[in-house]
UniProtKB/TrEMBL annotation:
Record's protein name: Vitellogenin domain-containing protein
InterPro entries assigned to the protein according to its UniProt record, in alphabetical order: DUF1091
Key words of the record: Signal
Signal peptide (from-to): 1-22
SMART domains (UniProt xref): DM8 (SM00697)
Superkingdom of source: Eukaryota
Short name of one Pfam family: DUF1091
Length: 182
């Protein structure tokens, strides 16, 4: 579901401040975006994703949610960092799992809702359970440049998943490389 892709990239920008070096600027390169789980039972979607520059992306999505989602589902978010050297192991920086309704009232409300409300009809943070619905996001431009001063170099792995028990209903995995500007 492209919503999770958007949320995940946004979460990445928020959390890349680990060990920030003062007055250093970094370039962020999204190396890999990968869907996780079999979303067909829960969502259908069409999305657009256009790379405007190395640090700017334009996104749009049409998402049909096929099942009502309540607190029997959880949202799991993982952020890990590794050195730039190939083969270096990832160190977990954040591993968070919350029931869906709590996620909506806390993380979604604090970090995502205001931006999403400007470009989509994604649900209000007080909406839970989430009813079957069609969602649209148009022309959302994600610019990572403003975050470059608070980033640290390395390889970053971020995962965000909608879970039902131990099963992944839908999710996204993103690998980024953060390097000093040349």
């Amino acid at each position: 579901m492209d919503f999770w892709r958007f949320v995940y990239i946004s979460l990445a920008c928020i959390t890349l401040g680990h060990e920030a070096a003062a007055n250093m600027n970094f370039d962020v390169h999204i190396d890999k975006l990968e869907r996780v789980g079999d979303t067909g039972e829960y969502f259908t979607y069409n999305y657009s994703y256009e790379k405007i520059s190395e640090m700017k992306f334009n996104m749009g999505a049409q998402v049909q949610q096929l099942k009502e989602l309540d607190d029997s589902y959880t949202v799991k978010a993982l952020v890990a960092r590794a050195d730039l050297a190939d083969g270096s192991e990832f160190e977990v920086m954040m591993d968070l799992q919350k029931p869906l309704c709590e996620w909506m009232r806390t993380i979604y409300k604090t970090y995502f809702y205001e931006e999403l409300a400007k470009v989509s009809n994604f649900p209000h943070y007080d909406t839970c359970p989430l009813p079957v619905a069609n969602y649209v996001m148009e022309n959302y431009v994600l610019d990572t440049e403003p975050y470059s001063e608070m980033m640290s170099e390395g390889r970053w792995k971020m995962e965000m998943m909608l879970m039902k028990g131990d099963s992944v209903c839908s999710g996204i995995s993103v690998l980024n490389t953060v390097k000093p500007k040349e």
